[in-house]
Amino acid sequence: MFPAAQVTTATRLEDLFSREDTAEIKYLMKRARRTGLASRELEMRNERQTLHLAVTVSALEEKLTSGFVIVLEDTSELLRAQKAAAWHEVARRVAHEIKNPLTPIALSAERISLQLGRLQLPSENRRILNECAATISRSVESVKTLVDEFSQFARFPAAQPVRSDLNEVVESALAVFNGRLDGIEMQVHLTPGLPAVNIDKDQFQRVVVNLVDNAAEAMQDALVKRLFITTQPGAPESVDLVIADTGCGISPDEKEKLFLPYFSTKGRGTGLGLAIVNHILNDHGAQIRVEDNPPTGARFTIEIPALVDSDGEPAWKPVVAGV
Amino acid sequence: MKPVRILIVDDEPDIRQSLSGVLEDEGYVANAVESGEACLEDLARQPCELVLMDIWLPGMDGMEALARIQEIPFPDRPVVVMISGHGNIETAVKATKLGAFDFLEKPLSIQKISVVAKNAVEHRRLQIENGRLQKASILAVT
Questions:
Q1: Of A77, A232, B25, B60, whose CA is between 20 and 30 Å from A14?
Q2: Tell me, what's the ipTM?
Q3: Do B85 and A99 touch (CB under 8 A)?
Q4: CB contact under 8 A, B110 and A114
Q5: DSSP symbols for B14-70
Q6: Would you say A55 and A1 are in contact if contact means Cβ atoms under 8 Å apart?
Q7: Do B86 and A99 touch (CB under 8 A)?
Q8: What confidence tens digit (pLDDT) does each residue in A255-280 have?
Q9: CB distance from A108 to chain B under 8 Å?
Q10: What SS3 state is found at A140?
């Protein structure tokens, strides 16, 4: 949560927290002095990221001079998962609310053309009226298609993970870009002999493609265009995939919203790219984090649980996507 | 022949109006109510052959109303077709288990409705005919 150097030299709250955060914690300490225990949610910003913390302060004794125990729990992941779940519900409801009025529109248009068939009308008028009814029916169809695509997001297909070599998956994803990354210097370091991972190959290719797409776009106006793609052993029993660029970078504010649906810094696109990436990774028990890539650019690190090799059994079980 | 009565249950006035219109064009007698509760009251007053029931309803939802309709004794019990705005397999299976005859997904089309209505009414005629024959055969044996 804090850089090690900052923690070893810190002697006061102010050494670790901003002025506002310190004031909040001191207020909690006062309350804990009265009630024994006080807690609240805190949003902590630093130059790297925004953290959502659950802060609990307990007073050791009911004496004015005694100490406190302050527990900081990072709830950013939890909050992110809650936000994603909220969006699935929104997508489902919006799809329903749009399809509802489509029914009377579609039925009325069809009924108009049926009734027209029974009328004596000058042929020119008949042609126009029939054309209008047909236009309405066609438009209803296209809105329905749109809504169906939209609700695809709410019922994303469940992952079908198989034992895979991450390097192979990355290579086949990069093959998609063959010749399409002009002017970008690729630095690909795929560490050989990595532990196998239990992933859905198609979905993971999509993750890599989405991230490389974003990186290429972020470097459009950059002077140095370098894309780093690295696979390496990560924390115990995990494999890391790092995709870094020398593009325009991501501000702390943007970092927080990055994985939400319909958040986009681009003028085009659906804003679903990274939300889909996040969804896929959640289904695989994998984590993604975004950091700066000094001096400029962004670095996405994906941590994938490795397969435990001794018994060949996966070290984790995939989450079945809810509908 | 006595006209076939159909009851529409949907909380959207425009759907009630357009669906009634389409069914009347096809020669049915259509009534429409806005809730599961009103549907059960209407059925208690005058039986009908077919109920077209929306699943998402305020108050008693369509599934519960479907279950309550199954408690109506046989000759008066209508055939029920469920209508949903977000068709998924689970809901369709659940509705069928609860006794629904069929499942329609919004947006509806005249063709889909008329085919389903025709099948449902035919199904009910056969049910009644079957019941009558069974009774007759029991009488003949005894």
A1: A77
A2: 0.78
A3: yes
A4: yes
A5: HHHHHHHHHHHHTT-EEEEESSHHHHHHHHHHS--SEEEEES--SSS-HHHHHHHHT
A6: no
A7: yes
A8: 877 877 666 666 555 556 787 788 88
A9: yes
A10: helix
